[in-house]
Amino acid sequence: MSIDLHCHVLAGIDDGPDSLEGSVALARAAVAAGTTIVVATPHVSSRYQNDPSTIAARVDELNRRLIAEGVPLQVLCGAEIALARLAHIEPDGLSGLTLGAGRSLLVEAPFAPSVNGLDSLISDLQRQGYRVVLAHPERCGAFHRDRRALESLVHGGALTSITAGSLVGRFGARVRRFALGLVRDQLVHNVASDAHDSTLRPPGIAAELRQAGIASLGAWLTLEVPRALLEDSELTPRPSGDA
Questions:
Q1: Pairing between strand 35-40 and 2-7?
Q2: Residue ranges of the chain with per-residue pLDDT less than 70
Q3: In this predicted structure, what is the pLDDT of residue 241?
Q4: d(CA 129, CA 215)
Q5: The pTM is what?
Q6: Which of 35, 141, 208, 232 gets the highest tally of CB atoms within 10 A of its CB?
Q7: DSSP code of 224?
Q8: Residue partners of 111: CB distance under 8 A and separation at least 6
Q9: pLDDT at 166
């Protein structure tokens, strides 16, 4: 069983499903893949200017539908926040975009070949009492060019959440090698699906961990760490594993 911290399961508010039926199909696929809790993380960006009240309303609607259809999945509120959007979100709004009811924020690692000011933005969020989780850093061109920048962020307290599909080559061989290297060097704290639908970007996690040869880390990456983030508790030490 796993907790999926990064999933675009809500309908009609970003590039995830375009209908509630599509959300239910994604939820059924998540259950089939062994997931019991999904954190809905719609984009919060210049293109998708979602806010806490909109996200909460869609989460409530989806949970009611899942209960009515007997789908055993709990959906929690969250968001994937673009760097460029952070400066425009008021403090009250930011607190409503955390993962679950905790103090962790999922911040999107940009795909650009260079990133300016990321370290200061993260430090500012940490000073405000947030735990910062970087989404899909293995797909960030700037970190490919300078992995030490990512290492510095992690050593400064940032956490990383890589996409399960990256571990098995769904985003190319280079991303796969980079992701596996991050796992090997203990720079990964979570693996999530980053699912957008039930077929093309499905919500698998456990199968990808097995295929990548790191199933022994699965409970820590997909259950223990997510639970700690949602409950604002200390992370348990990473176990020795295959990586």
A1: parallel
A2: 241-243
A3: 55
A4: 32
A5: 0.96
A6: 35
A7: I
A8: 139, 140, 141
A9: 98
Instruction: Give exposure, 142-174, as e/b (b: 16+ Cβ within 10 Å).
Output: bbbeebebbeebbeeebbbbbbbbbbbbebeee
Tokens (6 digits) for 197? 């639908």
Q: Supply the pLDDT for residue 242.
A: 55
The 10s digit of each residue's pLDDT in 165-192 is: 999 999 999 999 999 999 999 999 999 9
pLDDT at 92 (0 to 100): 87
What dihedral do alpha carbons 40, 114, 209, 97 form, nearest 10°? -20
Both tokens assigned to 11: 């309908």
| Residues 11 and 20: beta-carbon distance below 8 Å | yes
How many residues belong to the chain?
A: 243
Domains defined along the chain, listed by start: 2-231 (3.20.20.140)
β-sheet bridge partners, residue 43: 80
Write the CB contacts of 173 (distance below 8 Å, at least 6 apart in sequence). Answer: none
Query: What residue type is 57 in one-letter code?
Result: A
How far from the centroid of its chain's Cα atoms is residue 33's Cα? 17
Name the region of 188 (left: φ>0; alpha: ψ -120 to 50; beta: rest). beta
pLDDT, tens only, 27-64: 999 999 999 999 999 999 999 999 999 999 999 999 99
The Cα 159–Cα 118 span in angstroms is 14
CA dist 200 → 125, 195, 203 (Å): 34, 9, 10
